[in-house]
Amino acid sequence: MKRLCKSILFFSTLVMLSSCEKKEKATTISVKNTLDVERTFETVELTKSLLNLEDLSTTGILNTETNTLELTQTVDNDGDGVLDVILFQPKIKANSESTFKIVTVTEAEKPKAPELCYSRFVPERTDDYAWENNKVAFRVFGPTAQKMVEDNVAGGTLSSGIDAWLKRVEHPIINNWYKKEIETDGTYHEDTGEGLDNFHVGVSRGVGGIAVKVDSTYYFSKNYTKWRSITTGPLRTSFYLEYENWDAAGNTIKESKIISLDLGSNFSKFTTHIEGTNTIAAGLTLHEKDGDVIANGTDNWVSYWQPHADSELGTAIIAPKDYFVGFENYNVETKDLSNAYAHLKVTDNKTVYYAGFTWKKSGQFNSNLEWQKHLSDFSNKINNPLEVSLNE
């Protein structure tokens, strides 16, 4: 019995020492907000290399102030089967800093939330690629839709513009709307409570499609040719698009991009890789040209607020200050070629910008002035991101 008691005591001591050692080696991170506003719905990315971890699948983020686990999402960015980053959206008070502990968790212990950030390839509607979060929804058009137009087959679409789906609910609508359009007598062109698709793109740039300007003419690609889904989840959806090389007045343009949309944001982030030009222009269609084009060179955004059916619609391009170089209200007689453009610098074959919209009927922003304030606030945040540091 004495030997058994000694063995138990020895084992307990080892457990205590092991526990203490783990606590001493626990990794914490600090997230700092340098602005005088509270920060919410901003996604922080933590890489494997930053955390010095080989496997993120059992990684959790513990809020040391509330002693609760943060909602997280892990992402394999390059599709090699290995998780590259873990995402979370901390709430950080104005001019303050919060600490989070990196912990090991089981799948059952991880906080759960609806997958509101969603995207997918849509083969049942030619070859759209659609994406959404709890605020907005978008889609782009693929090679089958392009070929239908070129072969004079009804139902195709030839455009590299970005289409906006005007949702006014926070739950996902993409699958519902396609099913409604394809499998029932209803149509997503009519609003039955969730919103509708009544945004015309044509050959315009829609909400954030790009062009290359040579002299006084804008050139742009046709439909995307390749796609790859990267992630969907409670905090982010992202995917890759590639385009066939295209011509801009004798310059061969090579274009691909990663588009991501985070929870709570009205703006998709476009990380565009491009060769053959030193600048690009991201555009907003002017539709009937009955709205207000406003540009803010200080806060690096271009906006178009317009009447839209029985409501109003605001669209915008916002860029980090390192990429924004100017803007133009391009107004011509040819249908769908009038766009408000943000001119963007290409550095090392890359440029970054955000494009998105608000629909007054959704209740998010009720006036042009509210929308403009949001654009400047958003610009301030992307140009002053939350600062993350590792505490060892």
Walk me through the structure.
The radius of gyration is 24 Å and the shape is globular. The protein has two domains: about 25-110, Immunoglobulin-like (Sandwich), CATH 2.60.40.1180; about 120-380, Beta-galactosidase, Chain A, domain 5, CATH 2.70.98. It contains five helices and 27 strands. It starts with a helix and ends with a strand. The relative contact order is 0.13. Mean pLDDT is about 95; it is low at about 1-25. The longest helix has 24 residues, at about 1-25. Strands 15, 16, 17, 18, 19, 21, 22, 23 and 26 form a nine-stranded antiparallel beta sheet that branches. It is an alpha+beta fold and about 400 residues long. It has helices at about 1-25, 50, 145-150, 175-185, 370-380; strands spanning about 25-35, 45, 60-65, 70, 70-75, 85-90, 95-105, 120, 130, 135-140, 165, 195, 205-215, 215-220, 225-230, 235-245, 245-250, 250-260, 265-275, 280-285, 290-295, 300-310, 310-320, 325-330, 340-345, 350-360, 385-390.
* Overall average pLDDT: 93
> How big is the Rg?
24 Å
- Main sheet overview: 9 strands, antiparallel
CATH topology term of the largest domain:
Beta-galactosidase, Chain A, domain 5
CATH class descriptor of the largest domain: Mainly Beta
Structural class, from helix and strand content? Answer: alpha+beta
Helix content: 10-25%
- CATH architectural grouping of the largest domain: Distorted Sandwich
Note poorly predicted spans: 1-25
Number of helices: 5
Cα separation of the termini: 44 Å
Number of strands: 27
Strand content: 35-45%
Number of domains: 2
Shape: globular
Pfam family, one: DUF4861
Protein name: DUF4861 family protein
InterPro entries: DUF4861 (IPR032342)
